[in-house]
Fold these 3 entries.
Entry 1:
Amino acid sequence: MSYSERDKYGMYKHSAGSGGAAGPGPALMGADTLLGEKVVNAYDVELGDIKEIMLDMQTGQVAYAVLAFGGFMGMGEKLFAVPWQALHLDTAKKRFLLNVDKDRLKTAPGFNKDAWPDMADIQWAAEIHSFYGTDPGRARGPDVGPGTVSGDASTSSGASLDPRAGNQGGDTDISHIRGSNIG
């Protein structure tokens, strides 16, 4: 089920081109509609789904999306705090993209539902941001668009992680992500 199907208030019912009043999405989205949203990588491999969205109460910004990965029917699944800026909202396919290989995600710092980390701990945050190649000092949300992944969404230096195992490729190596649905 996509965010538009979880829209109980009709905020995504109209688009700017439909002749009706444009709703807030995708520039502004209801947090509740994003819970359960699928997260895939550049090769269309499903990485999990969003279980929670964590807000930084000091800044008012979204800090992390908590991604559930692995397990069976909620049993044995591992949770990961993914920096919000590491995600890309694919508006064409109504899902999130995360530029991480599935095998690499298995080695990401994670936790189980009964032992959440102190997400306000600076050392913990530095480890998470280092893993995903994001800048903890930069408040920025996911890139939004139809199926594109900007290198700026992954790191402050403009380079992005290549989702293939063992590669640390730059933006010149993500051309396979861009599709014909770019407008």
Entry 2:
Amino acid sequence: MNLYINHILSLFVFLSTILFACKKEDDNISDDTNGSNNTEFIFGCMVDSACNYNASANQDNESCNYSCYGCTEKNAFNYDSEATINDGSCAYASQIMQNTWAVESNCDGVVLGNLIPNEVTIEGGQNEGDLIVDFGLFSLNGSINNDGAITVNGEDPTGTISITGVGFLQSETQAQINITATVTLLSENCTLTLTLIE
């Protein structure tokens, strides 16, 4: 009987030792794989160049945005009032206009309509914002302000027709100028739609 009880006690001690060792090993494995059971996940943007970078984040949630980048120069044509970081994209109205443009003209007469080519070249003048609009047979002097408002004036090749106009730079690739040609009591109006040739 004592032998039987000794066997049971020995078996109990043996099994207890094995179970304790297995439990300890499981705890060690759990600590190794999780690092620390107290780790708190902080989700956010982890790209330091993004506008919403979160230095505390340890899990990227793909929320990064770059809306704070843009042109921050107030006198630029493409000034972005919501931008806080200048990305070098600033473009100025006078620089944009100094290019070669395709011209589509819509005139209410035939004199000026016949003088306007399908393409014009615009160059800068003496001062900032001054323009010279080369129509091939004649040129008009002009100017443009930072907001893109355009004025032009000059004469036809014969010097008998006075030409004036106003317009607007609508985008970095599109402009519109309304010109009026006047000779004595007669006048002719044209709408010129300019598209940048790239």
Entry 3:
Amino acid sequence: MYSLIVNLRSKLLVFLTHHMALPLLKLIRSPQKFQHTKEALHQLPEGTLGNELVLMLDEKNLKLLPYYAKHDIKHILLQYDTTDEGEVCLQCFMLGNKHLSFPVVATVVYGIITMPEYWSSLRKAYKRGSRCKPIEHWQWFTLLDQPVHLLRQKLDCELAISNCESSMERMKIS
């Protein structure tokens, strides 16, 4: 029964994010379109944010979505996996980092309500975000050729405090 609930919860999260929120936000916000291809990202030096992004997409068998790339870049930089837990931890980090938006709040509330087994991880991600330097105004697409380890240093916060990050280590990204 538990696995059925987790499976349904996961499908609902994907549906709400990819099929409702993302198309709606494209209309409301007019986000910047990601201009790079996977092939171009593969040409970037090893260890750069853009190269790590394409390696993660390849490993996870994910498409490069032109209006979702900024979100995927945050997964790399902040070391949160693309699992349900990692998705909600990423948004908890953003909330703790003072980024208040509908998708952030909705995802955090969804996670708190439907994922009690991850409450500890969510709390740690929020606290981590509150300790880091603000990243809301970073120009994400200009950072693709930067070494990931230097960008993480710019965050100026402790990185390895959450269970969410340990799942990222399994992705072999760092």
